[in-house]
Specification:
Structural class: mainly alpha
CATH topology of one domain: Ferritin
Largest sheet: 2 strands, parallel
Strand order of the largest sheet: 1-2
Order of helices and strands: HHEHHEHHHHHH
Helix content: 55-70%
Strand content: under 5%
Shape: globular
Oligomer: single chain
Length: about 270
């Protein structure tokens, strides 16, 4: 819970989420922080620094991406469980990414920046809870398999620059979710797993809005300082994103999120 004694400011509330490792407790703390902000119980102050790394539960074991076991095609129940577990881990880390973005960089932006990224944090907490519940329905749970730590590496690489963080996390990593999620939904439907497919459809809808928040705040920040947004975005991605910008692209979803081809096509 968010207590008035220890979480007077929005920065303190965000840090409390990041410092909570237990998955169920992190979800509860994230939701409590969002409720407290909406009720006006948190001061719009940034008096506490965010940790370099968030707390993590004992399980799952975190491995480098190149040491992760192959999940297979996902047609078998075992393969589907492995894929759902990987997606749950992405959503778990995304809770921290949203609250770190708000707490670390909120002082650089107007107050409604916090409104947007705390809503993203609440969405990610809900996504994780849905996927973890789905794993339990299938006889597994979050932490039963290994996971990789690549997402937080992107946060570490952009911890110094709010524009770099916006460029890489919502506008590259979440945008990639727009590209791959429709095919993942089809894979689960083909396996007769309509329950997981429904969850992923909800996640896809929310991800469009998350990418839109990133693109909107990135453009606003660039415009306020006279920077050309498209070329600056590409420069930041080249410098701070270790992966590749590669097709296939879900151009319609990206366009709906305010991320037109002019941004990413030159890097593909």
């Amino acid at each position: 819970m968010i207590s008035a004694e220890t979480s007077i400011t929005i920065a303190a509330a965000c840090r409390s989420v990041l410092e909570t490792g237990d998955p169920a407790a992190k979800v509860k703390r994230a939701r409590a922080a969002v409720r407290a902000w909406r009720r006006g119980e948190l001061e719009h102050q940034f008096d506490i620094a965010m940790p370099d790394r968030p707390a993590r539960p004992e399980k799952p074991e975190l491995l480098p991406p190149n040491r992760m076991p192959r999940r297979g095609k996902g047609g078998s129940e075992r393969g589907r469980i492995a894929l759902i577990h990987a997606l749950a881990h992405i959503e778990f880390v995304a809770i921290d990414l949203a609250f770190d973005l708000a707490g670390r960089f909120g002082s650089h932006f107007p107050r409604n920046f916090i409104d947007d990224w705390l809503l993203v944090g609440a969405d990610e907490a809900m996504h994780f809870a849905l996927l973890d519940r789905r794993l339990r329905t299938l006889g597994s749970h979050y932490g039963a398999l290994a996971a990789h730590d690549g997402l937080w590496e992107a946060a570490e690489a952009t911890a110094h620059d709010p524009l770099a963080r916006l460029a890489v996390v919502p506008m590259v990593l979440e945008a990639r979710g727009l590209d791959v999620t429709p095919a993942t939904i089809d894979r689960f439907l083909a396996a007769g797993d309509e329950g997981t497919a429904r969850i992923l459809k909800r996640i896809l809808t929310d991800e469009i809005r998350h990418v839109a928040y990133g693109a909107t705040w990135f453009r606003m920040a660039c415009e306020s300082t006279g920077i050309a947004a498209e070329s600056h975005w590409r420069d930041l991605v080249r410098r701070h994103f270790r992966g590749m910008i590669k097709p296939p692209f879900n151009d319609s979803a990206r366009e709906a999120a305010g991320l037109p081809r002019e941004y990413y096509a030159p890097l593909a």
